């Protein structure tokens, strides 16, 4: 196995708009290769330790990193919510410098992108953004691994995201624009992504020659190959009154068989956890159109590609 020259040097894995098309395609190819030939990479992280900071609870992120690191021959250490929010007990910069004394990589699932930025600034080892309030690059990379496994040419894929403009849709739209994938974002009015992410996506799409469409009109979704959705209720926003208002406002944006047929889409993606009968019907989630568990598995292979690449530099 050769892990050298997989990518141009990559210091950390923080935000989708920091990667080139060549870097992303190389990561996708590597993820698929590791998935097909895991034994070839069983010692890729031998003698390496990964510190995993989790401010927010998780199933797929925790399991996929922990077991993925094990499959690469490395050691993972979970640092959970018992340590409190980053920056409260001690400065984030001190946290980064201390972990750099012991670990070879820091994985961080945090509330604020600022925490990711400070960790990366002060750590002397690579930092991987496993989720923050602005980006979810590990999820987006796994999503494009999944698309690559199902479509022979990514540049011909038409991808739509329907629902709340959040960290998942941010990463998806940025990565789509870099990879020259046509992307349609359908959000209720007032729930669009922040303006700077929209402007970045427009610029990247113009550079790559892809199309980026943002609309509040679910009837304007157009023809799509893939429809992607995510929960309407973000973690920490489960207030009963607020939830009722959101469910009423978002109801026309539910992803179901009727919407799939309207868009002529033949694949459904969801990053999970799914709130069935809210943003998506149970019938569609469990149908043959759904690739959500292939997508979930690919979190591990995509993250392993990132780990192998960062530690090969």
TrEMBL record:
Gene3D superfamilies: Aspartate/ornithine carbamoyltransferase. Keywords: Transferase. Residues 11-149 form the Aspartate/ornithine carbamoyltransferase carbamoyl-P binding domain. It comes from the Bacteria. GO terms for molecular function: ornithine carbamoyltransferase activity. Residues 156-309 form the Aspartate/ornithine carbamoyltransferase Asp/Orn-binding domain. Pfam families: OTCace (PF00185), OTCace_N (PF02729). The keyword Zinc does not apply. Its EC number is 2.1.3.3. SUPFAM superfamilies: Aspartate/ornithine carbamoyltransferase. Signal peptide: none annotated. NCBIfam families: orni_carb_tr, PRK00779.1, PRK14805.1. PANTHER family: ORNITHINE CARBAMOYLTRANSFERASE, MITOCHONDRIAL (PTHR45753), ORNITHINE TRANSCARBAMYLASE, MITOCHONDRIAL (PTHR45753:SF3). Belongs to the aspartate/ornithine carbamoyltransferase superfamily. This is Ornithine carbamoyltransferase. It comes from Colwellia marinimaniae. The lineage of its organism: Bacteria, Pseudomonadati, Pseudomonadota, Gammaproteobacteria, Alteromonadales. The gene is argF.
């Amino acid at each position: 196995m050769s892990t050298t020259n997989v990518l141009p040097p990559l210091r950390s894995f923080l935000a989708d708009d920091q990667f080139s098309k060549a870097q992303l395609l190389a990561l996708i190819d590597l993820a698929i290769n590791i998935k097909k030939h895991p034994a070839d990479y069983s010692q890729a992280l031998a003698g390496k330790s990964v510190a995993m900071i989790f401010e927010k609870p998780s199933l797929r992120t925790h399991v996929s990193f922990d077991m993925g690191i094990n499959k690469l021959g490395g050691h993972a250490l979970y640092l959970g919510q018992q340590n409190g929010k980053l920056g409260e007990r001690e400065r984030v910069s001190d946290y980064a410098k201390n972990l750099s004394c012991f670990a070879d990589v820091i994985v961080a699932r945090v509330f604020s992108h600022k925490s990711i930025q400070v960790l990366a600034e002060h750590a002397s080892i690579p930092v991987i953004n496993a989720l923050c309030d602005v980006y979810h690059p590990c999820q987006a990379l796994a999503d494009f691994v999944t698309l690559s496994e199902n479509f022979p040419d990514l540049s011909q894929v038409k991808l739509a995201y329907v629902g709340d403009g959040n960290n998942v849709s941010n990463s998806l739209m940025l990565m789509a624009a870099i990879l020259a994938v046509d992307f349609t974002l359908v959000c209720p009015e007032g729930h669009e992504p922040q303006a700077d992410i929209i402007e970045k996506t427009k610029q990247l799409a113009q550079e790559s020659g892809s199309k980026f469409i943002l609309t509040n009109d679910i009837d304007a979704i157009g023809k799509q190959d893939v429809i992607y959705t995510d929960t309407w209720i973000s973690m920490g926003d489960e207030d009963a009154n607020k939830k009722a208002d959101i469910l009423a406002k978002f109801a026309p944006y539910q992803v179901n068989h009727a919407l799939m047929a309207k868009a002529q889409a033949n694949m459904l993606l969801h990053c999970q956890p799914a709130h069935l009968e809210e943003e998506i019907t149970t019938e569609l989630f469990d149908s043959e159109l759904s690739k959500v568990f292939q997508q979930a598995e690919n979190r591990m292979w995509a993250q392993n590609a990132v780990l192998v690449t960062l530690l090969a530099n």
